[in-house]
Amino acid sequence: MNIAIIPARGGSKRIPRKNIKLFHGKPMIAYSIEAAKQSGCFDKIIVSTDDQEIANVALQYGAEVPFLRPADIADDFATTLDVMQHAITWCKEQQWAVDKVCCIYATAPFILPEYIQQGLKEISAEDVEYAFSATTFPFPIQRAISLSKDGTVSMFSPEHANTRSQDLEEAYHDAGQFYWGKASAFLSGKAFFAEHSKAVILPRKRVQDIDTFEDWDLAESLFSVL
User: Is the overall model pTM greater than 0.90, yes or no?
Assistant: First the structure.
């Protein structure tokens, strides 16, 4: 049994009610639910929330909300792993034969069903515990600089001060859209970014963190030209 779990707490601080704020005419969470449905990968699509309004929106777009998340894993200190372990344990208590689980973030309007499908293909290998979305940094990380409190500049990797950009190894970062994992890996707390994981590489134009109002404006602008 494959299950999608979409964490969506009600207490977002930097962008209030972010998970159900309208983004190009639809609640933000609707994009994640619709992509999960269109992927055809899941027997169940569950939204884990502590908020009844979010639950109602999730139900409207075709997800299930079989429980409300406890307050102790709905505050600013709760981790994604906390939420996933709670949801998977709940599913197992219902005697569901949970095999593979995909955490899909509620604020991922650029997510596409085909990347979810690719993640399922990767996680189906025996030696793979997780598969997650990733993309490339737009600038070589070896050329990153640090600014001190007094405004002075230093390089994080001064050994590469004179290395040509094209000679530097390309680096990748978590795209923050989805995390496939074997249920046993989530429950045992295995590390996400390790040798037992695979990355599903997304084009940079389909990746945008949405943590601030500036991020939101940028995401809306990018979405309008895709």
Answer: yes
